[in-house]
């Protein structure tokens, strides 16, 4: 998932830069008032800028196709126009204009999907021709959608209702509706596919429960409770490449990581030392008929395996669970241009230690009035 752009506080989409990980979480893209930037994650937990467009065009959306040279961008000056570039050659491959503002762009090795408020446009990635348009979708002002990274199981998920958490799933290869999920009672806030394209994670605007479904079977595999004290705005859900972890960011300073355990080998088997929560969920499910529905639901919900605390809460943040030099890492990028790298203990979980913090882009220079103003007194 991605963050809305506009480099300064007075910029587009309420301030902040646009930032997003690529499909396999090996690199990061950022859009700013000066253009777009590509960064690579390095083996020493660092961030290396590998390209900067320096176009001078305020870039509000940008996505890169895995680690290729193909980049799709949308600028603030032309919010209805999609530009597809070959960044290494510095050439424009093509551009398309749409009837309304582009709210999201998603890529995989087979398809490119453009999301408008009430339609989705599916392009063939090879020649960029439009293959299909999904029209008259429920109002989707945030451009919420998710395209599976897999070119074989190439599904796009998007809200099927603006009133409840219904998910429509469309097959972008065979160009037909696949299935509908009734995921939540409240409207959707976040969607994410696993790398294989078989699991879909969902969260609602309430922000307390995160669910994982098997697609197209529509089977609910996992249900996690992010918290019970307050409702929050979930900004991002992200599977690890191996599919073993799911990260969730919100408008708070805490990033949660959930572990997706394999199903128990046999019913009634003793729980493994590190899998009692999964065993308890299975036991509760088996005895659900003897418990009040609300009690059974709460007991069956898993809790976070690990958590990281950001130095300060961000309006929006995206996360990636990846390996750096074969060590598990949680990497969190914020719309303030900060990237935080945390150690993830694959055996014990718990609190994630902050290893390094990077600045993606330099802060804009202060106004002259700010430079000439006297310094504020210290506390």
UniProtKB/TrEMBL annotation:
Stored Pfam families: PROPPIN (PF21032)
Domain of life assignment: Eukaryota
Sequence intervals crossing the membrane: none
SMART domains per record: WD40
Coiled coil: none
Keywords carried by this UniProt record: Autophagy, Repeat, WD repeat
UniProt family annotation: Belongs to the WD repeat PROPPIN family.
Designated name of the protein: WD repeat domain phosphoinositide-interacting protein 2 isoform X5
Organism for this UniProt entry: Bicyclus anynana
Lineage, opening ranks: Eukaryota, Metazoa, Ecdysozoa, Arthropoda, Hexapoda
């Amino acid at each position: 998932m991605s963050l809305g752009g506009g480099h300064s506080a007075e910029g587009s989409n309420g301030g902040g830069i646009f930032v997003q990980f690529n499909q396999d979480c090996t690199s990061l893209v950022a859009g700013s008032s000066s253009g777009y930037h590509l960064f690579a994650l390095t083996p020493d937990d660092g961030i290396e800028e590998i390209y900067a467009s320096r176009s001078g065009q305020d870039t509000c959306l940008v996505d890169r196709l895995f680690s290729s040279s193909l980049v799709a961008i949308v600028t603030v000056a032309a919010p209805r126009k999609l530009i597809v570039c070959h960044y290494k050659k510095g050439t424009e491959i093509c551009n398309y204009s749409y009837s309304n503002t582009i709210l999201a762009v998603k890529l995989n090795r087979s398809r490119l999907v453009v999301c408008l408020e009430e339609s989705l446009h599916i392009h063939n990635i090879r020649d960029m021709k439009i293959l299909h348009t999904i029209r008259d979708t429920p109002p989707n002002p945030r451009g919420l959608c998710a395209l599976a990274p897999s070119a074989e199981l190439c599904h796009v998920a998007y809200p099927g209702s603006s009133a409840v958490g219904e998910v429509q799933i469309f097959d972008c290869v065979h160009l037909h509706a696949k299935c509908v999920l009734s995921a939540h009672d409240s409207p959707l806030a976040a969607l994410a596919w696993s790398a294989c394209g078989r699991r879909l994670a969902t969260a609602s605007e309430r922000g307390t429960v995160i669910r994982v479904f098997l697609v197209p079977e529509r089977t609910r595999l996992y249900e996690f409770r992010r918290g019970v004290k307050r409702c929050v705005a979930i900004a991002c859900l992200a599977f690890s490449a191996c599919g073993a972890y799911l990260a969730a960011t919100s408008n708070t300073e805490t990033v949660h990581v959930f572990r997706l355990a394999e199903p128990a080998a046999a019913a009634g088997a003793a729980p493994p030392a590190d899998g009692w929560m999964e065993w308890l969920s299975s036991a509760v499910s088996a005895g659900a008929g003897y418990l009040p529905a609300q009690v059974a639901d709460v007991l069956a919900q898993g809790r976070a395996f690990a958590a990281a605390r950001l130095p300060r809460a961000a309006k929006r943040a995206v996360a990636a669970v990846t390996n750096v030099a074969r060590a598990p890492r949680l990497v969190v990028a914020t719309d303030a241009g900060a990237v935080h790298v945390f150690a993830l203990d694959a055996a014990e979980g718990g609190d994630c230690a902050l290893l390094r913090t990077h600045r993606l882009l330099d802060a804009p220079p202060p106004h002259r009035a700010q430079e000439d103003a006297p310094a504020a007194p210290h506390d």
